[in-house]
Amino acid sequence: MLALILVRRTIMPNMSASIQTIIDLGMDGVLVDVECHLSNNLPNIVIVGVANKAVDEAKERIRGAFTSTKLVIPRKRITLNLAPADIPKDGSSFDLAMALAILHKTEQIPNLAILQKTIVLGELGLDGSIRSIRGIIGKILAAKKQGYDHFIVPIQNTEQARLIPAISLLAADSLGELVQLLSTTAAFEKTQDAFSSTLSVAQHESDFADVIGQKAAKRALEIAAAGQHNVLLSGAPGTGKSMLAKALPSILPPLTRPEMLAITHLHSLASQQYDRIVTSRPFRSPHHSASSVAVIGGGSRPKPGEISLAHFGVLFLDELPEFGRATIETLRQPLEDKQISIARAKDSLHFPADFILIGTKNPCPCGYYGTNKPCVCTPVQVLQYEKRLSGPIMDRLDLYVDVENVEHKQLLKIDSSEEKSEQIANRVQQARFVQMARKTNRGVLNGSLSTRDIKQVARLSDSAKQLIDAASAQLGLSARAYMRAIKVSRTIADLEGAETIADSHVAEALQYRPRSLTT
User: Fold this and answer.
1) Burial of 226 (0-12, 13-18, 19+ CB in 10 A)
2) How far apart are CA 128 and CA 312, in angstroms?
3) Are 250 and 262 in contact (CB under 8 A)?
4) Whole-angstrom distance, CA of residue 108 vs CA of residue 66
5) Considering only CA atoms, which of 159, 410, 427 is closest in space to residue 279?
6) What is the largest distance, in Å, between two alpha-carbon atoms of the chain?
7) DSSP-assigned beta bridge partners for residue 81
8) Phi, psi at residue 219, to the nearest 5°?
9) CA torsion angle for 102, 108, 113, 114 (degrees, to 10)?
10) What residue ranges define each of the domains in the chain, with the CATH number in brackets?
11) Phi, psi of 37 (to 5 degrees)
12) pLDDT at 518
């Protein structure tokens, strides 16, 4: 759970001073009042309002920061109330706001008008320093939705905060510096609406030109990149399945600012480097021993899992059948809804999970069934291996591709005829432009289209409609597989710049249907 702190001067009786905060629950924010009350009891700081240990320990950080900064902490009983009291609060981002609440009450900041309608975010160090906090982008966005546009933030978080347009920032490195700024005429920096061009360009380790042959697999990945479709690569060990998957990010378009904001926010919630900006599309590759919670997200304090950390990027599950059955089955909802809902007794959160799934599998446990190498698996073992991927999961895969062996003499050949990622990326970008121009209800990319959207944008020719109807009946496609085949056909047509889906587009889409569903 994350918190946003908004400082607001209010007219109250002599007994207390009020400061407003906001708690970020997933993608929404709840306003919370931080009340500071002084009484003539034994000197102490008490924090109430369902605060966890990280919040409660703020009183020691506040004492240390006041002493190091030579600020006066009143020798009274200081009660800090976080209301509504029935909403749990955690994290260290309340520190700076609570310190300002005390300064507010003791009138140590003369220019209090500057704190009106201002969000204050920051963790305090014992030396008075203001440290960066986790999830600052989500906090600012939640506050901005509710009409707040002035923010006091740690200097380490300013690079992330500047990604958000049309807000005003005041950065401080220490509590003493902040008090000095607030005691004078502190100037807020207005962020620009124009997207920053100073961000580094993503560098990719793999290029499609490095992959020799495999034209069918490359074509399938191009379609997947253009329409946000899921792919399963099947083949013997060493045929290049992993190499192909790792080259996929090189043909995806650069991140837009909204995408960069969403990705950076999610990674800030889960990563230890929560003050950095993610400038390239994620490529997440968890090991098959990863738990369901690690992949899906959750925990006692719910955090994004690998599927959310792959948002707007690629989730690569190498040797998909080797993952636990429960882990594989939990992919059903995010593959369909593009988000994951995590329900716990204390919290119920939603995290986005709009990713391209790239899975790989061998033809059997030993990996050599159907190849020129001897297979040591029994028919029962091969059948059990195939059954590890259930029908509902296979039904959600758009493209199923067999990756063939490449002759060894071709591997070291310098072949300039292999198409580079840059050329493929241009076609992918153009196809995405076509999809974005349609402005459908649910999403812009074909892989995210709802049934209603598909009916609007499919535009099947009469012969193409007859072909897919006949093929679906013969192949036994489910209703979901039928609609997914149309989505892939629409993407193929978009790559060719065709307004109407033709027979050739449908035929190519059908050849990528998962084998277990078409045999």
Assistant:
1) buried
2) 39
3) no
4) 12
5) 159
6) 87
7) 35, 48
8) -65, -40
9) -80
10) 2-190 (3.30.230.10), 202-407+417-436 (3.40.50.300), 439-519 (1.10.8)
11) -130, 135
12) 38
Helix, coil or strand: residue 303: strand
Distance of alpha carbon 480 from alpha carbon 155, whole angstroms: 49
Compute the C-alpha angle 405/229/492, nearest 5°.
85
What secondary structure does DSSP assign to 280-297, as a single string? Answer: S--EE---TT--HHHHHE
Q: Are 359 and 397 in contact (CB under 8 A)?
A: yes
What does the block give as tokens for 392? 């509902």
What single DSSP character describes residue 460? B
* Entry field: residues in the chain: 519
pLDDT in tens, the chain (519 residues): 445 555 444 433 444 556 666 666 655 667 777 788 999 989 899 999 888 888 999 999 999 999 999 999 999 999 998 877 888 888 888 899 899 889 888 888 876 677 778 888 899 999 999 999 988 888 888 888 888 888 999 999 998 999 898 899 999 999 999 998 888 777 888 887 656 544 555 667 788 888 888 888 999 999 999 999 999 999 888 888 889 999 999 999 999 888 999 999 999 888 777 888 888 999 999 999 999 999 998 877 788 999 999 999 999 999 999 999 999 999 999 999 898 888 776 667 888 999 999 999 999 999 888 888 889 999 999 999 988 998 889 989 999 999 888 776 677 766 667 788 899 999 999 999 999 888 665 568 999 888 888 888 888 999 999 999 999 888 888 899 999 999 999 999 999 999 999 999 999 999 998 654 333
In the block, tokens 């003791």 appear at: 106
**Which amino acid, 314?**
V
Q: Distance (Å, rounded) from C-alpha 189 to C-alpha 192?
A: 9
What's at 392, amino acid-wise? P
Counting other chains too, the contacts that 100-103 makes at CB distance below 8 Å and 24 or more residues apart are: 100/7, 100/19, 101/7, 101/17, 101/19, 101/34, 101/35, 101/36, 102/36, 102/62, 102/66, 102/73, 102/74, 102/78, 103/71, 103/179
* CA atoms of 488 and 229, how far apart (whole Å): 8
The two tokens of residue 327 are 């882990």
317: left (phi over 0), alpha (psi -120 to 50) or beta: beta
Sequence-distant (≥ 6) Cβ neighbours of residue 160 within 8 angstroms: 136, 137, 264, 268, 275, 276, 277
Reduce the secondary structure of 128-183 to three states and give it as a string.
Answer: CEEECCCCHHHHHHHHHHCCCCEEEEEHHHHHHHCCCCCCEEEEECEHHHHHHHHH
Two tokens at 166? 């049309």
The 3-state secondary structure of 14-66, one letter per residue: CCEEEEEEEEEECCEEEEEEEEEEEECCCCEEEEECCECHHHHCHHHHHHHHH
